[in-house]
Amino acid sequence: xxxxxxxxxxxxxxxxxxxxxxxxxxxxxxxxxxxxxxxxxxxxxxxxxxxxxxxxxxxxxxxxxxxxxxxxxxxxxxxxxxxxxxxxxxxxxxxxxxxxxxxxxxxxxxxxxxxxxxxxxxxxxxxxxxxxxxxxxxxxxxxxxxxxxxxxxxxxxxxxxxxxxxxxxxxxxxxxxxxxxxxxxxxxxxxxxxxxxxxxxxxxxxxxxxxxxxxxxxxxxxxxxxxxxxxxxxxxxxxxxxxxxxxxxxxxxxxxxxxxxxxxxxxxxxxxxxxxxxxxxxxxxxxxxxxxxxxxxxxxxxxxxxxxxxxxxxxxxxxxxxxxxxxxxxxxxxxxxxxxxxxxxxxxxxxxxxxxxxxxxxxxxxxxxxxxxxxxxxxxxxxxxxxxxxxxxxxxxxxxxxxxxxxxxxxxxxxxxxxxxxxxxxxxxxxxxxxxxxxxxxxxx
Length: 445
Description:
Creatine Amidinohydrolase, Chain A, domain 1; alpha+beta; disordered N terminus; Creatine Amidinohydrolase; 5-stranded antiparallel β-sheet
């Protein structure tokens, strides 16, 4: 499947969320993107991080999280013990992609093990190493980046026990290479991401409408399960259970845990409520993560009250402050500190807890705050921003609402792309409150 055909397939997705590719076309897209990543992205990443050999070892149902992103579209899991070897010869500008396995690893990685000639899989791996004489061998182990810590104890010990003494000192953590593979998005993947966010927005828009919510009857839990069912009906998946909560004049503002685990279940949604959701989908091996807000109109209202409209504007301003501080090679902790300081100087009460987004929802890369670590995040917050990366721009600002005699929290989250031309939202962001029911003109539109 060529590149133009990939884009043609993707173009059909963008108008309606129901236009989802069938499984066979999804597989073609996934395998085409993998080929591009292996052939064109991986050599650069290996050169940038100083590895000429990268070895990934997994067993069926216990996959290295990085190797799992490399599986052919028709492989849902590794098979038996799967060993993948990437060898980069920078001088000759070549990259070998070898599977020390009984089968080809799809169409992109060929089998390099004939069990009839060499029954021992480990010995065959050592032969491949000896033949290429790498200067640096990367294995996926890491103290701080969980996705990059994929080699299990037994496989690591077996590998080191079989490795000749002359190569032991060449074995290094492939942490930086693994992070780069996980966090870097290609041009085609960004096209896909736009469609994913569009689908996500469509689902939220329908969930926060009179099609789903009948004030006084529908509960927050009802909406959560409607979203799950909608995802399933579209042939998609979600990487976390959706959450829906309300803020209203009679409720006190809870702590940050309220949005994650302390929400009352089955709260009946009422006129005058500010409704919030946290929702994401998985499609074509990428993930979304969005938080949006809706207002439930009272019978005599035709638009949300100005104080809530202004509160959302405050949230948007905090987003602007935050993303304006993005700069390549600046650490997450630097961006966090500068943004909080600038936001507070403008009179806001912000909290920022933005995370990398991609093959995993909470992915590897630059962490820009956590809700319970507003002073900075050790190690992952010290990792610098790189171009061609995507983040869930997740934050909130606390706003005093005199009409409610309380504070509310404007919680927002949208996918943002950082590239050579700076920052942009992948598929826009919420700048107007959704209304339940939708506001219609005199012609009923």
